[in-house]
Design a protein that fits this description.
The protein has 4 helices and 7 strands. It has helices at about 1-15, 40-50, 160-165, 170-210; strands at about 25-30, 55-60, 65-70, 80-85, 110-120, 125-140, 145-150.
Length: about 210
């Protein structure tokens, strides 16, 4: 792994020299169908944080895994938000498809967004992270073919899911169950990250205002 970190560190320095203002790393790692990250992921994420990455987004486990706010051991002022796994999108990995599938979590995913803000002095900061759970609705369409619809489960319009996506009562229940599964995994980490980012933003903007007052 040391050669990976050395090469990545070189890339990061080259990117910053070329004008990169923020860094997001997407990584393919670790064990399928496990709902929590393992020690290898923890160790790698910490090293990536120490290298200065702002956001880490993971894939491969085919289930959603937690969000964590990491603190650099090299520079305690630097934080990294890590989503260990995005979950699944279009996939046959569902209960009843394979003996390896033991959980409906393989039907779940998340639309993960990050917001950066730039100030007048050119400084760029991560200001917010958000996640909208998704559920893969596999069904037979009017032509008798399998169809896969990735449904964004925005909680603010939960009462319109059924009409918006033309769902049966049973399928709406599957959406609600999927939403709850995903938020149980990522909700606390997203909330912690946003609490920290909001506090940092308030302190930052108070400082900038003090310069002009």
């Amino acid at each position: 792994l040391e050669s990976f970190y050395t090469e990545l560190d070189r890339y990061l320095k080259e990117m910053k020299q070329a004008g990169a203002e923020a860094t997001i790393l997407f990584i393919h790692w670790c064990v399928e169908y496990i709902l929590e990250e393992n020690q290898t992921q923890n160790d790698m994420a910490q090293k990536l944080c120490d290298l200065g990455i702002d956001v880490i987004i993971g894939g491969h486990p085919h289930v959603v895994q937690p969000v964590e706010l990491l603190t650099s051991t090299e520079n305690p002022e630097h934080k990294t938000v890590c989503l260990y796994s995005l979950g699944n999108a279009v996939s046959n990995q569902r209960l009843g498809f394979s003996d390896a599938i033991k959980t409906p979590h393989t039907e779940d995913g998340i639309l993960f967004t990050v917001t950066f803000e730039e100030y007048s002095d050119g400084s760029v900061y991560l200001s917010e992270v958000q996640g909208i759970p998704t559920w893969v609705n596999k069904h037979r369409n009017e032509n008798g073919k399998d169809e896969y619809n990735i449904l964004p489960l925005d909680d603010s319009c939960r009462t319109s899911w059924q009409e918006k996506y033309d769902l049966s009562d049973k399928t709406v229940k599957s959406c609600a169950d999927s939403f709850d599964r995903t938020m149980e995994i990522v909700g606390a980490g997203i909330a912690e990250s946003n609490e920290y980012l909001a506090q940092e933003k308030a302190e930052r903007e108070a400082y900038y205002l003090s310069l002009v007052s």
